[in-house]
Automatic annotation (TrEMBL):
Listed name of the protein: ABC transporter domain-containing protein
Domain ABC transporter: 50-296
Coiled-coil annotated spans: none
Annotated organism of origin: Microbacterium awajiense
Superkingdom: Bacteria
Keyword ATP-binding: yes
Keywords (A to Z) from UniProt: ATP-binding, Nucleotide-binding, Transport
InterPro entries in the cross-refs: AAA+_ATPase (IPR003593), ABC_AA/LPS_Transport (IPR051120), ABC_transporter-like_ATP-bd (IPR003439), ABC_transporter-like_CS (IPR017871), BCA_ABC_TP_C (IPR032823), P-loop_NTPase (IPR027417)
Region (Disordered) residue spans: 1-40
C-alpha cells in the first residue's frame, strides 16, 4: 500500500475532478457464471484468459509466489486481494514478464508466456500498471502516452528514414493519446512534465498510457493507492468502462469495499498461495479469507474501508464488517434489479 500524495497534490488532483466524479456510483450488473463447479482455489473458469500452473518464485527463504493453479476469467473484473507481502505484486511481475519464476508455466489467450519478455507480452495485449507509478517525470504527459504505443513505425530503421511514414502515424498516435487524456481529464496537462502531476494524476496517466496499446487484458496494481478521494469514483468508472469495452481486468486492491463494488470475481492470496476464490460476497464470508487477513479467532471484520466510495445510504463508514459489506452489496444489487425491470 502506498499513499504518495501531499495535501497540495490533493488540491491539484481535486481541481481536475468535475461534479460528476463526486456523485454516487452508478451500480452496474455483475458478470456471473464465470466458474465451473464449486468456487475453490484454482477453480476452472468457463473461458479463462490466463491459465497458470505451478508458478513459484522465492527470494532467499521466502516463497513469495507458490501457486499450483490459477485461471483468470475473460471479460470480467477480477480482484486479487491479500495482506501485505502475500505475493500479489510478485505474481503480477511474473505473469507480465518483469520477473522470472523458479518454475512454472502460464498462458495468455492460449499462448504460452513463460519466458516471454515484458515488451513482447504487452504487444500481445497484456498490459500492467505499477504499484508505484513509473511515469517518466522528465517527459511530458503526451510523450509518456506515445511511449506506451506499440508497433511504432518510427522505431523501425528503414521506415524511420522516410519521415512521412512515421509522421502520419505520429499524428494518429497523438489523436489517440489526446482522446485518452481527455477521458482521464489530463488533456490540459498534455504538455506538462509528468513530474508536475500529483500522485493520483500519475496513476491516471499510467492507466491511460497502458490503453495506448489497445490491450485485451489490463492488470492494475493498486490503482487507487494515493488517488485523491475526488478522483476515486472516476477511476472506478474507468475500470468498469474497460469491461464494458470488452477488456478483461485484473486488479490488486486492499479496500474491501471497493473490491466488493467493482469486482465480479475475487482471488485471495496469502503467503504466496491462492487461499480462496469466489464472487465478492462468498469470499468476504470465507473463513480462509478472514484468517488470511486477521489470523484465526478474531472478530469477523475485514475493516479496511477508506470511505472513498459513497454507499447507497450515504458515505461509507471508516470500517465495515464482512456482513455489513455483503448487506450493502445485496441492497445495491436489488437496486440494480429494480432499475433494470423498470427499463424493460
Ligand atoms: N525483489 C525482491 N527481493 C526480495 N524479496 C522480495 C522481492 N520482491 C518481493 N519480495 C518479498 O516477497 C514477498 C511478496 O511480496 P509482494 O511485493 O509480491 O507482496 P504484495 O502482496 O504485493 O504486498 P503489498 O500488498 O504490500 O503490495 C514479500 O515477503 C516481499 O518481501
Ligand atoms: Mg504489492
Amino acid at each position: 500500500m502506498s499513499s504518495d500524495m501531499t495535501p497540495s497534490e490533493d488540491a491539484v488532483a481535486a481541481e481536475s475532478a468535475d461534479e460528476s466524479t463526486m456523485t454516487s456510483p452508478t451500480p452496474r450488473p455483475k458478470t456471473t457464471g464465470l466458474h465451473v463447479g464449486d468456487p475453490a482455489p484454482g477453480v476452472a473458469k468457463v473461458d479463462p484468459i490466463i491459465v497458470a500452473d505451478n508458478v513459484r518464485r522465492s527470494f532467499g527463504g521466502v516463497h513469495a509466489v507458490d501457486v499450483d493453479h490459477l485461471e483468470i476469467p475473460r471479460g470480467a473484473i477480477t480482484a486479487l486481494i491479500g495482506p501485505n507481502g502475500a505475493g500479489k505484486t510478485t505474481l503480477f511481475n511474473l505473469l507480465t514478464g518483469f520477473d522470472k519464476p523458479n518454475e512454472g508455466t502460464w498462458s495468455f489467450d492460449g499462448h504460452s508466456l513463460s519466458g516471454v519478455a515484458a515488451y513482447k507480452v504487452s504487444r500481445m495485449g497484456l498490459v500492467r500498471t505499477f504499484q508505484l507509478t513509473k511515469a517518466l517525470g522528465l517527459l511530458t504527459v503526451m510523450e509518456n502516452m506515445k511511449l506506451g504505443a506499440k508497433n511504432q513505425r518510427g522505431e523501425k530503421f528503414w521506415s524511420s528514414l522516410i519521415p512521412p511514414l512515421w509522421r502520419s502515424q505520429d499524428d494518429e498516435l497523438e489523436d489517440r493519446a489526446m482522446e485518452l487524456l481527455k477521458r482521464f481529464k489530463l488533456d490540459t496537462k498534455a504538455d506538462d512534465f509528468a513530474a508536475s502531476l500529483s500522485g493520483g494524476q500519475r496513476k491516471l496517466l499510467e492507466m491511460a498510457r497502458s490503453l495506448m496499446t489497445e490491450p485485451t487484458l489490463v492488470m492494475l496494481d493498486e490503482p487507487m493507492a494515493g488517488v485523491n478521494p475526488a478522483l476515486t469514483q472516476s477511476l472506478l468508472d474507468h475500470i468498469l468502462n474497460l469491461k464494458d469495452e470488452g477488456m478483461t481486468v485484473l486488479f490488486v486492491e486492499h479496500d474491501m469495499h471497493m473490491v466488493r463494488h467493482i469486482a465480479d470475481w475475487v482471488v485471495v492470496m496469502a503467503e504466496g498461495k491462492i487461499v480462496a476464490e469466489g464472487d465478492p460476497h462468498e469470499v468476504m464470508r470465507d473463513p480462509a479469507v478472514i484468517d488470511a487477513y486477521l489470523g484465526a479467532h478474531q472478530d469477523v471484520d475485514l475493516g479496511h474501508v477508506t470511505g472513498r466510495i459513497p454507499t447507497v445510504g450515504g458515505d461509507a463508514p471508516s470500517s465495515m464488517t464482512a456482513d455489513e459489506i455483503v448487506a450493502e452489496a445485496e441492497a445495491e444489487e436489488e437496486a440494480v434489479r429494480k432499475s433494470q425491470e423498470k427499463h424493460k
